Amino acid sequence: MDLFDELNDEGVTIVMITHAPEIASYAKRVCNIFDGVLTERTDSDRTRIEAAGGWSL
């Protein structure tokens, strides 16, 4: 994950697909696909989820 962070800081766009919430937590932007619908979590969603103790679907 440190390598991905370094590359992204240099301007490289990284698209990662994962089911692991702990990996998704590194991302600056998180999108979800559920039942064929693409949604994006906002900063307010992230704050609320982190305050509740972690990511959940």
Describe the structure.
The chain has 57 residues and is α+β, with helices and mostly antiparallel strands. It has one domain (18-57). Helices cover 37% and strands 14% of the residues. It has helices at 2-9, 21-24, 43-51, and strands spanning 31-34, 37-40. The chain has a two-stranded antiparallel ribbon. It is globular, with a radius of gyration of 12 Å. The model has no long low-confidence stretch (mean pLDDT 80).
How would you sum up the major sheet?
Answer: 2 strands, antiparallel
**Strand-residue fraction?**
5-15%
What number is the mean pLDDT? 80
Structural class: alpha+beta
Note the overall shape: globular
Strand order of the largest sheet: 1-2
List keywords for this structure.
57 residues, two-stranded antiparallel ribbon, 3 helices, 2 strands
Outline the fold blueprint.
Elements: H1 2-9, H2 21-24, E1 31-34, E2 37-40, H3 43-51
Antiparallel strand pairs: 1-2
In short:
It contains 3 helices and 2 strands, in the order H-H-E-E-H. The protein is of the alpha+beta class and 57 residues long.
